[in-house]
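hey can u check if this looks right to u? its 405 residues, i copy pasted from the old doc so theres a chance i mangled smth
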Amino acid sequence: MNIINLFKVALRAIASNKFRSFLSMLGIIIGVAAVIIMMAIGQGSKESIRQNISQMGTNIIMIRPGADMRGGVRQDPSAMQTLKVEDYKRIDQEKRFISHVSPEVTASGQAINGANNTSTSLYGEMPEYLDIKQWSVSDGECFTEEDVKKSAKVCLIGKTVADELFPNGQDPVGRTLRFKSIPFRVVGVLKSKGYNSFGMDQDNLMIAPYTTVMKRVLAQNYLSSINCSALTEELTDKAIEELTTVLRSNHKISGEADNDFTIRSQEEMMQTMSSTMDTITIILVVAAAFSLLVAGIGIMNIMLVSVTERTREIGLRMSVGATGLDISNQFLIESVMISITGGVLGIIVGYLGTLICNKFGLPTSIPLWSILVSFAVCTVIGIGFGYFPAQKAANMDPIEAIRYE
């Protein structure tokens, strides 16, 4: 019996049991759709995170206080006071692979303008901070280095703060607001960046001279962190080596002693986040793939039932010259057709599922290889789980099969 006839026989068998065949496909449809949706969400989330980090610049380097042991207890890095203004000044003086550097101190609290108020974060920075984090001023101008020297009570505000404190189209530039009872004159409004992939509002912030925040708001003499940008992304590693050397010298750390600071690059963060998302995606896909295993068992079960029901048919075919290989191929083709048809429908359902996810704000991206893998898996399932029923049919005794009631 040639291959075309075998396909015709398989199609007739599937068509004569439409509902049962559909139920056999249903497990494959659900499994493939689940795998594609999970992979699309994982890939989309990873690309979204990379895009958001890239928007801030992949050559950014962040210096934070390091954890330390005191009295046998490891201190939280945020409680350490190891970064000083002198560290920033020396980095700024000796930089070779660094293009911009800005000290940073932060505070959280209520910003108030008349009867309007909002919770926000205040960042104490140098004007270079805008170049490091790729911020731009949409209205007004940035504060100057002279403002930093004088600890002037001026600030930039994000779009969210501007909308909350100055509603109905009021122009914030030149107006005065209060942060923790300290008056700040608004000199500019930052261009909106919107929400990042973590759901954080990037426009809910104020930026003021770091000297103002240190002296007038926090009354402290240490820095929360230091932000830098390398000359190019390729020079990031050399810039980190340079920063490490400068800080170890400034902090009088010698030999094998541990650093009392940590240095992280944006590229390192990007790789870490990508690795994390890859791990999460694999876990989700493996969980969804178990449904394909269950679907394969369902196909084998249905094919065994089909072999039992068609025992007399198998005996008749053998009696008129069909070989065991022909019978085996007939049921294998039927199993593969059910599996691949279910896979195609599953891909369509998976694609529609990603569109629905997009409607709800979940970033998705379907990699082409996931579709190819789905086809390959469906074929393997069809052959793997159809082999035993096909062999059972091929090994029947034709005389016994014809006598079967």
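The radius of gyration is 33 Å.
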